[in-house]
Amino acid sequence: MSESLPRRPRPSIAQRCLPFGVLGFVAACVLSLELSFAALFDPGAGLQLAAFLGGFLPPTHDLPFLRTLGHATLETFAMSLVGTALAAAVALPLAALLARPPHRIAARRTRAVPTDLLRAAGRLGLIALRSVPELVWAALLLVAVGVGPASGTLALSLHSSGVLARLQAEALENLDPAPAEALRLNGASALGTFLHGTLPLAAPRLLSWTLYRWESNVRAAALLGLVGAGGLGQSLHVSFSLFRLHDAAAIALAMLALIAGVDALSFRLRRSLMR
Predict the structure, then answer these.
(1) pLDDT digit string, tens, across residues 105-123
(2) Shortest CA distance to 248 belongs to which of 48, 55, 62, 71?
(3) What is the reported pLDDT for 98?
(4) For residues 237 and 220, what is the distance between their CA atoms, to the nearest angstrom?
(5) Residue 182 and residue 159: Cα distance in Å, rounded?
(6) DSSP string for 143-161
(7) What Cα–Cα distance (Å) separates residue 93 from each residue in 41, 85, 86, 190, 266?
(8) Burial of residue 223 (number of CB atoms within 10 Å: 0-12, 13-18, 19+)
(9) CB neighbours of 175 closer than 8 A, spacing ≥ 6?
(10) Residue 239 to residue 188: CA distance in whole angstroms
(11) How far apart are CA 52 and CA 249, in angstroms?
(12) What is the pLDDT of residue 259?
């Protein structure tokens, strides 16, 4: 006589009503925004949009402007790269200190391990770093370091350090603790256990998150110039302020080329890491 398959527990009333509640909440949000989708299909609006976009053509392509555009593109690229590198240098030690066990099995009984209260305070600080957008950080840093790419670079590093530390801490927490535990049982120090038992296992994931954050920082760096932080964003802001739409079109194309190039490079690097 064949054994009967176990019956799945029937979902509760709350579980069955949850999808309808989520849909109702989304519908309420849409209604509260008073979105006018009919305006998108208005023929007059379409003609106005076409006339506005026609003002961007053709993009400026004279040699002096292209030299200035190339310098702004390199500046944006440098801002994103340095900002990401600074954030990664700060995020890894923070992630190692604030990650909860089991990833720090070898060191959780030592005095260097933060208590739960300090760990919670540190995580709250990371929330504060990543909850403030890059544009707001750049606007605040303009007072300290002045107008230019330095404020934009620091703004990217502050915001990204909070994001990367959170992602890297989760990656460390989800590792298999067996290699670190084996090293600890064989007399390895806490630092040696982390460097040789934990970090090699987490390195592909940590680098992948860092590269992904670099992609995001290129997009953010291209807009930080709107508050005076240099790069392509500042050139775009000046062009729109002076109604130089042809210049703005060339700057937008440079942004697109830079972001596409960094995305392609990051994708190839992440694929090689995952292999």
Answers:
(1) 444 444 444 566 777 777 7
(2) 55
(3) 79
(4) 14
(5) 36
(6) HHH-SSHHHHHHHHHHHHH
(7) 52, 13, 12, 14, 23
(8) buried
(9) 103, 198, 201, 202
(10) 60
(11) 12
(12) 87
Closest CA to 138 of 155, 160, 163, 158: 155
| Rounded Cα–Cα distance for residues 3 and 266 (Å) | 53
- Do 147 and 228 contact (CB within 8 A), yes or no? yes
The phi, psi pair for 201, rounded to 5°, reads: -70, -35
Cβ-in-10-Å burial (0-12, 13-18, 19+) of 237 comes to: middle
For 239, residues 6+ apart whose C-beta sits below 8 A from its C-beta are: 245, 247, 248, 251
Given a cut of 50, the residues of the chain with pLDDT beneath it are: 1-2, 103-113
Residue with tokens 């972001």: 259
Distance CA 186, CA 175 (A): 20
What DSSP letter does each residue of the chain carry, written as one string? -PPPPPPPPPPPHHHHHHHHHHHHHHHHHHHHHT--GGGGG-HHHHHHHHHHHHTTPSPP--HHHHHHHHHHHHHHHHHHHHHHHHHHHHHHHHHHHHPPTTTTTTTTTSTTSPPHHHHHHHHHHHHHHHHS-HHHHHHHHHHHH-SSHHHHHHHHHHHHHHHHHHHHHHHHHTS-SHHHHHHHHTT--HHHHIIIIIHHHHHHHHHHHHHHHHHHHHHHHHHHGGGT--HHHHHHHHHHHTT-HHHHHHHHHHHHHHHHHHHHHHHHHHHHHH-
Q: pTM for the complete prediction? A: 0.74
Q: What is the pLDDT of residue 47?
A: 79
Cβ 249 vs Cβ 56: under 8 Å: yes
Category of 146 on φ-ψ map: left (φ > 0), alpha (ψ -120 to 50) or beta: left
